[in-house]
Amino acid sequence: MANSLIEEERIQILNKQDVQPGGYVLYWMQQSQRAEYNHALEYAIQRANDLQQPVVVCFGLMADYPGSNLRHYTFMLEGLQDTEQALIQRGIKFVMRYGNPDQIALELGKDASLVVCDRGYLRFQRQWRDNVAQNAPCQVVQVESEVVVPVETASVKADYAARTIRPRIHRHLDRFLVPFASTPVQHSSLHLDLKSLDLSNIEAVLAKLPLDCSVPPVSSLFQGGTTRAKEILEKFLQKSFAIYADHRNQPQTDDVSYMSQYLHFGQISPLYLALQIQSMGNVPRDNVDTYIEELIVRRELAMNFAYYTPDYDAYSCLPNWAKTTLDNHRHDPRTPCYSLEQLDESRTEDPYWNAAMREMKHTGYMHNYMRMYWGKKIIEWTETPELAFQTALDLNNKYFIDGRDANSYTGVAWVFGVHDRGWRERPIFGTVRYMAASGLKRKCDIDGYIKKVNQRVKALNPSLK
Question: Which Gene Ontology terms cover its molecular function (predicted)?
Answer without folding.
Answer: deoxyribodipyrimidine photo-lyase activity; DNA binding
